[in-house]
Design brief:
about 25% strand, three-stranded antiparallel β-sheet, alpha+beta, globular
């Protein structure tokens, strides 16, 4: 219906199902294992992907227990870097450390000219300290292009709060034309 270039899962089904969906619709995919796995499905070739792309060392046992991943897509003759995260929902001190590690991981890409998209279930509200840290790193909340539409994402049945985001580096954000939360058709949950 929407013919998206990229679809991401924050609480993904098993990799076998993601692979099957991608094959049926003729798309490429990258899978990020974790307690709540992540996935990127794209019409553009995925030329590189990395689960839990930390700058140094293995993943600490208490961080990124849901998922943290990076994929590089080839769009025409250019690259697009996509980061996907699902941060800790209930322990702000762990989430703060996840933000620190994520920013370290993205630092090199954010300093470059390649478009960067960072999205996910970040489990914090726009008035939280995490939000200001993403902004301070140079990321732009694509919600600024929402044209006055609703932006709440949780709970799925009757959204009243926002914890899900799509961020972009300035190279990509300057090309953003619109933003909206899909709460319609098959994207609407009916608790009745």
């Amino acid at each position: 219906l929407y013919d998206p270039d990229i679809v991401t899962f924050q609480e993904s089904p098993a990799e076998e199902k993601v692979a099957a969906v991608a094959q049926v619709i003729g798309r490429y995919y990258a899978y990020f294992p974790g307690g709540f796995p992540g996935a990127v499905i794209s019409k553009h070739p995925i030329v590189e992907s990395q689960n839990c792309p930390l700058v140094k060392g293995p993943r600490p046992r208490d961080l990124f227990t849901r998922h943290w991943g990076r994929a590089v897509l080839e769009v025409a003759a250019h690259r697009l870097i996509v980061y996907s995260a699902h941060l800790h929902p209930s322990k702000p001190e762990i989430r703060a450390r996840e933000v620190t590690e994520a920013l370290k991981s993205m630092e090199h890409d954010l300093a470059g000219d390649v478009p960067v998209l960072f999205q996910g279930d970040l489990n914090h509200r726009p008035d939280g300290p995490e939000y200001r840290r993403w902004e301070a790193a140079g990321l732009v909340d694509t919600n600024t292009h929402n044209e006055g539409l609703a932006t709440s994402t949780i709970p799925s049945t009757t959204p009243t709060a926002r914890i899900d985001y799509i961020w972009a580096n300035p190279a990509l954000a300057s090309r953003c034309q619109s933003f909206r939360v899909l709460f319609e058709g098959g994207f609407r949950t009916n608790p009745e």
